[in-house]
Design brief:
It comes from Stutzerimonas frequens. Belongs to the cytochrome c oxidase subunit 2 family. Subunits I and II form the functional core of the enzyme complex. Electrons originating in cytochrome c are transferred via heme a and Cu(A) to the binuclear center formed by heme a3 and Cu(B). This protein is an alpha+beta fold and 296 residues long. It has six helices and 14 strands. The strands form five sheets. Strands 3-2-1-5-8 form a five-stranded mixed beta sheet, with no helix packed on it. It has a three-stranded mixed beta sheet with strand order 4-10-9. Strands 6-7 form a two-stranded antiparallel ribbon. Helix 1 runs antiparallel to helix 2.
Length: 296
């Protein structure tokens, strides 16, 4: 679908170049030609020819050509009925400044990563929890605005496996540029295994001081399957499998996780997650160790 969009763009670009050249040639010719004298009837005929040719025929042909290219491309992105295997439904909700991704058919919930199967249509239902965002994965298709209180649907289909970058493409606040979505296309079997691994899995809460901190603070906003039911911040049930933290800000490894817990407001200023300055480093380290175990 992204290839079809690119083809439409190149067709429009090519046609505009032809029009520019034609207008430039006529402009130069009009400046260099010798003045000619025409009778009133001849002048009227010439004017009529330019009005009909340049004002009616040329725009009509141009619009028809652009529609011939554009309509099939736009139609392929609409959630129209299909025969055979039905499209996969995925709900993507934009937040300041992270992505909530839900798979309604299986109940799987993740954050800042969008996994889809190859060669199967995917109906991406997008909306926003706060301000206007815009869902865009350039390698897969066009963008679609995410409007609070409204659900828009975009159909995508990956032709090959790979990792792609998604990006919010509507300015949504100070961290707009740091709202990145990890997108990965898997073979059908690998995608089914990815879903199955996250279905029905529950974790054990951390012990000691880390468990108390998570219960009193983190769990009020974050959900971890079997541990907490928070719904105001990213679901952490499969945190250890995500490549980045903070929607693409830093790598998700042992060092990055500890940095995020202790210094997240400096790494991504303005996020809703409060500072942890009053929590001992040792307790944050224990909490980080436990978070590293959150994998299917």
């Amino acid at each position: 679908m992204a290839r079809d969009v690119a083809n439409v763009w190149w067709a429009m670009f090519g046609f505009s170049v032809v029009v520019l050249l034609a207008v430039s040639v006529l402009w130069i010719y009009a400046m260099l030609r010798r003045p000619q004298t025409h009778s009133a009837e001849e002048a009227k005929r010439i004017n009529r020819r330019w009005v009909i040719g340049g004002g009616i025929v040329l725009p009509t042909v141009s619009i028809i050509a652009l529609l011939a290219f554009g309509i099939p491309t736009g139609r392929s992105m609409l959630p129209l009925p299909v025969e055979g295997e039905q499209p996969l439904r995925v709900q993507v909700i934009g937040h300041q400044w992270w992505w909530e991704v839900r798979y309604p058919e299986s109940g799987v919930v993740t954050a800042n990563q969008f996994i889809l199967p190859v060669d199967r249509p995917v109906d991406v239902e997008v909306t926003s929890a706060d301000v206007i965002h815009s869902f865009w994965v350039p390698r897969l298709g066009g963008k679609l605005d995410m409007v609070p209180g409204r659900t828009n649907t975009l159909r995508l289909q990956a032709a090959q496996t790979g990792v792609f970058r998604g990006q919010c493409s509507e300015f949504c606040g100070s961290q707009h540029a740091h709202m990145i979505l990890h997108v990965e296309a898997l073979e059908a079997d690998a995608f089914a295994s990815w879903i199955e691994a996250r279905t029905g899995r529950e974790h054990q809460p951390p012990g000691g001081a880390a468990g108390q901190v998570f219960d009193e603070r983190c769990g009020q906003c974050h959900r971890v399957a079997g541990v907490s039911d928070g719904n105001r911040a990213p679901d952490l049930s499969d945190l250890a499998t995500r490549p980045t933290l903070g929607a693409g800000v830093i790598a998700n490894d042992a060092e990055g996780l500890r940095r995020w817990l202790s210094d997240h407001q400096s790494i991504k200023h303005g996020i809703a997650m409060p500072r942890h300055d009053d929590i001992p480093e040792e307790t944050l380290g224990q909490l980080a160790d436990w978070l590293e175990t959150l994998a299917p």
